[in-house]
Amino acid sequence: MANVIKCPVCGEGNLPDQEFCQYCQARLQPLTGNLKGADAPITPGQLPTKISTADLEPVLPQWLREARSSARQTAEEESVQAAQPKPASRPASSSGNDFLAGLQSESQDDNEEDDVPDWLLNITGEAPKTKKPQSESSEVRWVELGDKKDFTQPEPVSDDVPSWLTGAGSSTPPPSEKNDLTDWFRSADDSQQPLPPLSTPPVSDPQDWLHSMAADGGAFTDSGNNVADESFTSSDTPDWLRAMDAESATQNVNAPFGNSSLTPDSSDTPDWLRAMDAESAAQNVNAPLGSSNLPPVSSETPDWLRAMDAESAAQNVNAPFGSSSLTPDSSETPDWLRAMDAESTAQNVNAPLDSSNLPPVSSETPDWLRAMDAESAAQNVNTPFGSSSLTPDSSDTPDWLRAMSAESGASSSNVNVPPASFETPDWMRAMDAQEKPQSAESAGFSATGSGESGAAFSSDGDTPDWLKGLESGSSSSDQDWLKGLQADEGAQPAAESAPAWLSSAEPVVSTPEPPAVAPKKEDDALDLPSWLKASAPQSSIFDEPVVAQETPAAPSSDTQDWLNAFKSTDEPQDQKASAFLIEEPVAPTVSKGDDKPDADALFTEMPDWLSIVDDSALHESIPAPITNVDAIAPGDLPSWVQAMRPVDAGVPQVVSTSLSGDKAFESRGALAGLQGVLPAAQGFSPTKKPKAYSIKMNASDEQQAQAVLLEQILTAETAPVSIDSFSAIGTSRVLRWLLAFLFFAALIAVLLMQTQIFSMPVGMPVEVASALQVVQSVPEGAPVLVSFDYEPARVGEMESVVVPMFDQMRNPRLTFISTDATGAILAERFISGPWAGHNYQSGVQYLNLGYLPGGQMGIRAFAENPLVIAPYAINQNSSLLDFAPISAWNLPPLQGVTSFSQFAAIIIVTDNADSARAWIEQTTSVRGTIPFVVISSAQAAPMIQPYYASQQINGLVSGLYGGALIEQSAGRLGTARVYWDAYGIGMLLAVVLIFGGGLLNFVLGLRDRAAAREAK
Amino acid sequence: MVISPELINLITGVISFLFTLLIFSYVLGDNPLFRIAVYIFVGVSSGYIAAVAWWQVIMPRLVYPAISAVNTGSSALMLELGLVLLGALMLLLFPHVTGLGRITLSFLVGVGAAVTLAGALTGTLIPQVMGSINAFDLNAASARNIGFMEAIFNGAIILVGTVLTLAYFHFGARPKADGSMHRLGLIEALAWGGRVFIGIALGVVFAGVYAAALTALIERISSLITFITGFLGNFL
Amino acid sequence: MRVITVFIAIISGLAVLSGYFLSGLFPVLTEVQTHLLNGAIILTGIAALVGIFNLISVHTDKVRRGEKGSVYSALLVISLVITFFLGIILRPEHDAMQVVMNGIVIPTEAALMGILTISLLYAAIRLLRRRVDMMSIIFLLTAVIILFGSATLPFGEIPLLGTFSRWVTQVWALGGVRGILIGVALGSLTTGLRVLFGADRPYGGN
Hints:
The complex is a heterotrimer of chains A (about 1000), B (about 240) and C (about 210).
Chain A: E1 5-6, E2 13-14, H1 62-72, H2 75-83, H3 101-106, H4 118-124, H5 138-145, H6 149-152, H7 163-170, H8 182-190, H9 208-215, H10 217-223, H11 239-251, H12 271-283, H13 303-314, H14 335-346, H15 367-379, H16 399-410, H17 426-435, H18 447-451, H19 465-476, H20 480-487, H21 494-497, H22 500-503, H23 521-527, H24 530-535, H25 540-543, H26 561-569, H27 596-604, H28 606-611, H29 615-618, H30 639-642, H31 655-661, H32 701-718, H33 733-753, H34 766-777, E3 783-789, H35 795-807, E4 813-818, H36 823-832, E5 846-851, H37 856-864, H38 866-869, E6 872-873, E7 886-887, E8 905-910, H39 913-922, H40 924-927, E9 932-936, H41 941-949, E10 955-958, H42 959-970, H43 975-1015
Parallel strand pairs in A: 3-4, 3-8, 4-5, 8-9, 9-10
Antiparallel strand pairs in A: 1-2, 6-7
Helix pairs in contact in A: 4-11, 7-8, 8-9, 8-10, 8-20, 9-13, 9-15, 10-20, 12-14, 12-26, 12-31, 13-15, 13-17, 14-27, 15-17, 16-27, 19-23, 19-26, 33-43, 35-42, 37-39, 39-41, 42-43
Chain B: H1 5-24, H2 32-72, H3 75-93, H4 101-134, H5 138-143, H6 148-168, E1 174-175, E2 181-182, H7 185-235
Antiparallel strand pairs in B: 1-2
Helix pairs in contact in B: 1-2, 1-7, 2-3, 3-4, 6-7
Chain C: H1 2-21, H2 28-65, H3 70-90, H4 95-130, H5 134-150, H6 161-196
């Protein structure tokens, strides 16, 4: 049930999207989060997202792109090798417009081996070739970054053939290319032989590209012959692998997929892997592939798997998977090895694939596996698969390896397959179901599954990519098994056509159902990254006879997970020929159940052989130090590469617990399909509901008191603070009334009596004298510009000074203008009022240009071009309906005046210092030497005084005092004189009151302040 | 209907008398009569200014030139007036500092800033600085019949007063250790002297304002007396 | 909009400013300056109208809402409207408008100015009660001296007081006032430059 996740703790079913078990709150999902771009787990048979892989080219890592480019260059060489009668299966290359196309080319490159790790060469049993050092190791990348999810995502949907497979149908790649799983894809297309109808149930999301591959099952046979003797000597291979490689070269041991039982002891080995190894080794299943053993094909079975299945059925290939022959002889043998050994000795089951032995195919069974199952059933080929056992004979080889090697050598096609787990994936079950009608011997392909049915390893379709890749490294990455399937169509025994990865079919979790665990290798192969397929011709194991292969160099104690996987996939199994093998069935090296003591002894001294480099290998393959392992940041990786990275490989301590008690499948992530990997450990997964923590702050009294204090401080900061200001002046209404009464009484009395007691001022200030001199110097009848810029409030004051000043002029032609809106009418009032005695007529003796708006701007504009700015005059005498403007500059008052500087004098009558300043400032540059006199109010005079001191104006007369001076000097008494006594009284009152009142208030103030200080 | 000047003067006198009394009532305190007079005064003044703006700004500077431009076919003038009219419309339609009115205001501010800048520089800053220097010009002093010592002494006072006053308006300060802001010691001392000169200047200004206000009061009381005596004289 | 307004302000300002200093080299700048200033003064006059219309709307709203003092607002609006239409019809220089000016505006303003006499004197008397410092004392002493020097006695001027008063006004006060004027000029210069540089945007371009 793909839709239900069984809780590893309580065993209850849960929805797949649940993270914790709804019954026991145990964790259902891996602790590690989804990788970038891989939010959803990929399950076998899941409808993949259609992605044109060619589009992924730019996002591929540099090393991968280089590998692809080199693969393109090796295409020709691949074709040459494919033409050889070597029974090695060669993977087909893909079309050129996708990322697998590069793999095809890569196969033609002489440097192909550069991308092939030594350990893969060892697996295949080929002698490592001398390679140039490389700065980058693809397998390391794969180990670091690989994940299965993204590998399956780009799979095409239904009949949409992926771009990277489009070439499979159209192009005819060289049949003898060395590597690339694309070969078998191409062969699948090239061979137009119809496949027998699949007996698998309908697939909801078939993958047509695999259907086509299944239909062209014969193609596999051709392409599958080419990989066998490939040697993998990666310069990046670790020493221990190189040692392994060296031994492999010396012994010339073919290492089919399942027969190598290299399981270096490592504390980092994940539990699931150990479990897998243990069960695989213990049961030592003879699992010939047989389509009859395939479980019913799930609706989610990929098409390509079904095609493969069908082809397998057609060829009737007996593919006994490699018998694992672990012979641990060390007391330090890890649990998984001991378990493997124990089960191997106990069961030693010859379990050819049979439909009865296969569990029902999971709904997640990929189609390709079902197809393969069907094909296997049709052909009924016994494929002794991966029976090679590693028999290291080097002096450095640890005992357990030697034992394992011996076991491999003794392994036959009968593979001890552990009983299939009840949680066998659907696709395996589907494979089983398809294998049912076939003979038991034809279970060469499915035997892997059956053979592994008893393995502790969960062969779910969600096998981690790295493991799949490793498995592919043995078999399916080069798709040799498919080639073998193709080559052996109708001729090859099932054992040969059985894929090595199926032969290595990790020991499936033991289930109540004794047999029938279909290998998940198909799915693994599906998930295998193409770049790895291109670089690792693991399929050679299908092509060459499976012979005992010595265990290569020992890994370090820090064995990587991928190495563990490698170990697990190399478990010797009793298997028949792979269905994809063309050559004669490989003599499987079945591990004996009595190898347990050796295995135990082996793992007690694990690190030595892993760390020793075999000199024989060194001279052939120069290891290339991995210098840029971290060159590719995980965050920069394409999603599919990231998805290939093992999600969680650091839980080795829960192995025993998981193996013993937890039988739940991981449904997502890299561990999907594995059983009891993460959550089963006691102490890892919660056994009860998470404790509810209160969000209420738990603060002590002291802390709360400090919080209150802080809050008070903050409140005080924001609270308005009253400004320490003087107390409001108590308005003394009495004083106000008293002052008003004094002034009104005095002034009314003086004005009413019209007294002229106070003498007129006689001392004329220099500025007044200068102004008077200027006014008197104005020629008779000369045009004088007068600006009336005072407010109506100053009418009395201004008229009292303007009239005597203007009286000093001799019939000037006055031109009035005003920067104040009421100035024009005040000028008219002046002409018709105090100046009425001169009988000035508008347009004759005087002219009123009216209001000049804009302040300084108007003054500047008027000074620059008065004719434009003030073209018209106020028509004082026009009727209401006379709208015709009066052109001012043609009238007598402005006759002969065309510019500002042509006025005889400029008189500014203002009560505002700013107005005077504006006139002074804006006319400085244009007035030249024109006399400039300011008649101002008394209040503005102090501010205008500096301009007289700086000689910017020629005279200043201000206020009533100035008017009185002019009248006094002129001897013509006027308004100033009328007001002068009242003015004098008012001044004296002010002096007396300010002085006396000031002193009084000063004393009162001192008293008040003294009282205030005493009060404080 | 022809209104005689006497009648006009009588009406004007009555209205003036009433409004003067209403305003003077403020001496007794704020009262509705005072407010009535003030509000009416504001309304009348505004109405009058609006009429002035119409007849002395819009008509002679916008309407008449537009008519003239249409008659003469002066496209340049029409364009100029069109732009001004557009700006005027924007100002009328968007009186606040929002929308298109900002364009007109920006034009006014730009022109006004330039005029103010140039006027302050050429009309006040440079001449006043030169005036402070020329205060020691003995030739100019002798031309004004000012003696040598008097010119030097007065010039020094003016110069010192100017500098100290400017120092008073220097508000640049530095933070002290206690966080308070204080000016430099020298600036503070100069500012103290500047306060003296500023106090003297404001005292003079106060006296001038008082003189102007007193003159206005005298004028108003005189007008009241004139009106009363004239009104009563007609009946007595 | 902001860019446009800043651009207009700067360009127009620079054009007018160049008319001050570069008109000798480029006489056309004077003409440009004149036209720009002419447009500006027209707009300023219209701005006065805008202000008056705004005043009307404010007080009309107060009347419409019946707020406190709406009677005064009604009086304001009525007097404004009447005066405006009267001024439009009769023109501002008409005799009727002279009556309005001489009967209402001038007496009211002058009376308000006259009341200021009482207020100024009251404030001067009370100043030392509130604030006793050097500047207050100097302020009052100077005011008293100037007032006293401006007045005459029935028998004539007070000896030396008028001279001393004028000396204070023309020398001591001149120094302070000149400093104030220079300060004002500096402020105007700075403000103008900031506007022309676009740093200050009082036209709402912030």
